[in-house]
Amino acid sequence: MPTWCPCGRAPPSAETLRSSPHAGRVPSLRSGRAPGTLVARGGPGSEQYPRNPVGDAEPGIPTGRDVEWEPLVDYRRLGVSETTIHGAVAWATADGVFHSFGGNVLCYGRSMMKPLMMKVFTDELAGLDGRQKSIAVSSHNGDVEHVAAAQSLLPETQWGLMQTPLDVPLVQFGRQVRRPRRWYHTCSGEHAAIIRGCGEKGWPRIGYLLPQHPWFQAYLDVVRRVLGEDWQPLRVARDGCGLPTMSNTVSELATLYAHLARTRHEDWIWDALVEHPDLVGGFNRLDTTIIKSGEGKVIAKEGADGLLGMAVDHPDHPEGLGIVVKVAHGWDPQATWYVARAALGVLGVELRNPYPLHRQKAFIVPGVVPPAHLDRLRAVPTWDEWDPDRDRWYYDWSRYIGSQPLMRGGP
Q1: Predicted local distance difference test score (pLDDT) of residue 51
Q2: Among 367, 362, 315, which residue's Cα sits nearest to residue 343?
Q3: Does residue 5 carry a pLDDT above 70?
Q4: Burial tier of 205 (Cβ tally within 10 Å: 0-12, 13-18, 19+)
Q5: How much of the chain exceeds pLDDT 70, in percent?
Q6: For residues 142 and 171, is the Cβ–Cβ distance under 8 A?
Q7: What does the DSSP assignment read for 261-302?
Q8: pLDDT digits (tens, 9 = 90+) for 8-33
Q9: What's the CATH class of domain 88-350?
């Protein structure tokens, strides 16, 4: 519960709340107060809260309850499914989506869209060195090298312009960092690049977090050049890092990633991801590992809450191939890793398996790849040769019931 009130008044003290005749009562719709809050409906600040905890249906905005998620992978212990990961997958080329599994889910592109965001500044940032370009499209772990590359984008006198939230490194190794800093935030490289690009274009650097800012309007134009000049996002929300993020369907996201593959020679975006993959994510990150495995033929970018986008340069799709995975329950790198390994494996790209499950095995649902690739899918195991089944005993234990003194009971 926040210690401030959106209307500007001091919150009631604990003693005041306890002595109130309404203590212990849940505000109702009849009371005129927003349910679950102390803010009167229609009063100052009341619009900053949801209307009810069940969630209202909004026309044209399907929620996760309304879409037809499909199982993508399940984890089994001796043949019994203990965990099933649901989600959606889309494959697209310049001609549109040719395979969709799990429904055309509406979501936010989040950090998966950074390669497209930077297309706003391809001319202005063309003179950066390779490491600076890579950190500009990154969602980095917050390692020393990541922070140094992000800070190099701006002179120290301009560091105060960078407005990512205070954070600690996303993935920490060695000495644990406990004091939050803006530069540790996974999006600090992107923010610094936007500030530098705005300066080069003569746009205001103050207010770059706002959706009316010229850079975000230019980014919308980048998306419209792919999805159509009349395209409009159904929602523009505030991302975790503070920047605006637009809603897209999974099919639209796959189409945009096909565009990245198709335009790979037109600017520095593709090379920025391929040349320094460890700056894009970091050690043991899925997108970094995919880029390394692709050997220049694949770029990948993770997005918060279960997103992975892959752009593929493949001879079967010379116009560019885009593959997007959305996991229903949010960020799950291990589950997404299995799906990515399957999708890339049928295309001839060998992505290693993630770290093994504990006494379980993962099994891919065939629908994650187009039907033409099903035979190839069966040749992409979700386990390694040094990872035998540890979820069973290697003998028929029922034959020995009561045959050993320790098993008989009694004296």
Answers
A1: 79
A2: 367
A3: no
A4: middle
A5: 87
A6: yes
A7: HHTTTTSSHHHHHHH-HHHHS-TT-HHHHHHHHHTTSEEEEE
A8: 445 445 454 345 444 444 444 444 55
A9: alpha beta
